[in-house]
Amino acid sequence: MYDPSRSHQVEQLSAANYDRRMTQEIDVSFLPEPFGGKSLTGTFAVVIDVLRASTTIVTALAHGAKCVIPFSTPQEALAHCENLKTTKNVLLGGERHGILVDGFDLGNSPLSYDSQTVRDCTVLFTTTNGTNALLKSTDADEIVVGSFVNLSAVTRHLTVRRKKVRFVCAGTDGEVSFEDVLCAGAMIEKMARTSTDEFHLSDAAVIARSLHRQHRQTQRLLFEALKEGRGGRNLLELGFEEDIEFASKVDLFEMVPRYNPREGRIEPISANG
């Protein structure tokens, strides 16, 4: 016998199941420009510069920095600092080609951004690759900073948002960076294993995930893998092996930095999003 209430219950259940099984599009840009001719409008952008800008930004905010303000050039950061009414609790941080910028307080080593140094401070930050990748991503609906040290926190945020995701790899001097693509692949794999959603991966996303699967190893072996790319080799030559080891620590921080282009600030996302 036909039961209208039972039919309504089935419809509700089907709708609930459909809602839980949404298809989320995932793409990867191996370099921040020109995004393969694709716009970032309507996407959730995750900017990745494992060695070292994104790792350093996460570390600074996790250790109590008030915010990080990204700049394209050291000159812009210095000019902004000079225009401030007070430079109390303001730090200039960054590098060019791995080297501390003259007149800056800090370089781009995440180890320098400890709580004693950065707590309650505003960090004016510029790097060779990472901050430019952020500044080129402003068309996205939302922009967060990702790295191995906050991998799970970022992937949880992505799956809750259920938007089209674009991982934007900063690269090294205009060339694709092994470690950034590897990190994007690790995040894609994490999303696929922990979400109830279905995913549509672009070919670039498939490549990134495949790279991660080839290097799905212990933290110690990840550290060794990060030394293989050009970015890692550059840091080794400059004596920053400890920075590479730090950047290879997965889930060191439970924090997601979000960049607000209107305010020009990177700040931690609050618990309620």
Description:
By secondary structure, the protein is of the alpha/beta class. The chain has a single domain, classed as ComB-like (putative 2-phosphosulfolactate phosphatase). The protein has 11 helices and 11 strands. It has a 7-stranded mixed β-sheet. It is globular. It starts with a helix and ends in a 5-residue tail after the last strand. About 5% of the residues have low confidence.
What string, H for helix and E for strand, traces the elements in order?
HEEHEHEEHEHEHEHEHHHHEE
Number of domains: 1
CATH topology: putative 2-phosphosulfolactate phosphatase
Give start-end ranges of low-pLDDT stretches: 6-20
Would you identify the CATH architecture? Alpha-Beta Complex
Helix content: 40-55%
Explain the layout of strands and helices.
Elements: H1 4-20, E1 23-29, E2 43-48, H2 53-62, E3 67-70, H3 74-83, E4 90-96, E5 99-100, H4 115-118, E6 122-126, H5 130-135, E7 142-146, H6 151-161, E8 164-169, H7 178-194, E9 198-201, H8 203-214, H9 219-226, H10 230-238, H11 241-247, E10 257-260, E11 265-268
Parallel strand pairs: 1-8, 1-9, 2-7, 2-8, 3-6, 4-6
Antiparallel strand pairs: 4-5, 7-10, 10-11
Helix pairs in contact: 6-7, 7-8, 9-11
